[in-house]
Sequence to fold (410 residues):
Amino acid sequence: MATFGIAARALSRQPLRAGLTVLGVVIGIAAVTTLVSVGQSAGRLIQGQFAALGTNVIVVIPGTGDRSGVRQGPLPSLTAEDAEAIAEECDGVLAVTPLVGAVAQVIYGRTNWNPKEIYGVGADYLLVRNWGVRAGGFFTQRDVNGAEKVCVLGQTVTERLFQTRNPLGATVRIRNIPHRVIGVLERKGANMVGADQDDVVLLPYTSARKRLIGSGFKDVHAILVSGRSVDSMETTTESIRGLLADRHRIPPGQPNDFQVQNTTEIAAALGVVTGIMTAMLASIAGISLLVGGVGIMNIMLVSVTERTREIGIRMAMGARSRDILRQFLAESMLLAATGGLIGFGLGVAGAAGVTLAINTWSSGTDWPVVISLPAAAIAIVFAGVVGIFFGYYPAWRASRLDPIEALRYE
Fold:
């Protein structure tokens, strides 16, 4: 500790030079802390958004066809019977719901609203999406079978149409067809692209297909499947793919007329991408640490030259070479550690500022503030290593001075 005290007093003689010396280390540590923290914030946001999508969700959508080399739109290849078969025959499936999308205006009294989403779904939709009901209830399988004119509203639709009034039991018109409101969903918030998930109306898919789309066919736009566990998602996905290929009589080797997407795999892939990008940015920011280390070495060499006579006096009074080596190493380590601590503080502030700016400029997003303490600790330790590595040569040079020559130095 006495060595570090002497080092601190030596550095305090020229505070401006010491401050400029550690500037590179400060910038490096701040950049590493900020970038890694923002990258981990993005990763946590992605995980949260996929968790909000539902519980271990597998999405089945119609495939696309080619005609004369031109890719066509989605094929009407999925039916509600496919969803029932998945629920009954595939292991690892917790719940299944067909999905039919529609676009329509919703009217209550003299107030009207165009929801972003109107979905016709099955009775297990909320179980698949891991979504709760704030007030009232959800429609049953009997409502689905009878294509009942009932609906459940999201929070945004409820606020737009009813303001502070109670919507339960009220009648809204969807394409001028009266539907009774039986429930209000819990608030879900915005998704990862900022779209409002609460601006939605849900009704039985049979009612949506019959009354809003006016289709006499049995096809649905998508099938949402909830797996029982994350570990069995790949097996469940392959089971669904095989079952639908058999049901649709797809010959071996021919492309399927449907697509099965595992959101767990998508989330993992996005997590890998964000991790790689974070590591790359942190590596680039780490270059400034090396630049800071070179600056420390340069200043320490200058300090050795300036303090040659002082070194000679200390050696003449009994200081050994290792004592001189230890003193100059302590000075370089103190410079690097001080820069590391200041850089960490600036990095924390930078990460919070970047997150606040993203949340302010991107409406609907809610980036969490994540401070990567392990990354900061590694960066500070690395700064200390930089101090030792780049400070060793000046310290060694100082310890090898001839006391007599050092005393003669002017």
